[in-house]
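The pair is listed for reference:
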Amino acid sequence: MVNTGMQLISFTCAVTGWIMAIAVTALPQWKVSAFIGSNILTSEIKWEGIWMNCIYQTTGHMQCKTYDSMLALPPDIQAARALMCVAIFLGWLSCTVSCCGMKCTTCAGDDRRAKAGIALSGGVLFILTGLCVLVPVSWTANTVIRDFYNPNVPLMHKRELGQAIYLGWAAAVILMISGAVLSSTCPHMERGGGYHRGYIGRSFANSPASAPDPPKPITSNSVPLKEYV
């Protein structure tokens, strides 16, 4: 019963992390404008995501434009697009596999060995999903921090970490922890695959050996004895 509750909690957290990863992929707040220097313009804020860049004005008006060329994008944005799409697909696959391996479902019947293997596969897939989210988010954060402290980059091109970066880190941690917990709640597989239902076996190895019965004497009451010379 405890393992079933842990499976439900970890699966719910993993699905939440997957939804957060989808939101991170769609949000444009990966990079935001850095207000530094003597001349700062706070009337508009520039957001840069992996699919589009947006300009948000303090009046509430916002304009977004998708990138014209994919090949002209920097390597971190190209890698982020690919890995986040892979993460979304792996998250969907993880949810499907984990549902089949949970104890509260009827998939795979009563075969505990099969359900344990399916649940373990679902947990590993959730961990891989978290890694696919963690890599592009950390790569983009490293690029932003490196350019921010680079004196050769103009002030107008410097950016800061956006809300999507922090949300991506949280999603990656939730996915990996939930996958690890889901994998650890699998029942242990018994060696030999034996299945017993209330039968008590009898061991003959340690039972004392009984002495053999002595041979019975041959009686010759009904057979006449004859002497032969």
In short: DSSP finds four helices and five strands in the chain.
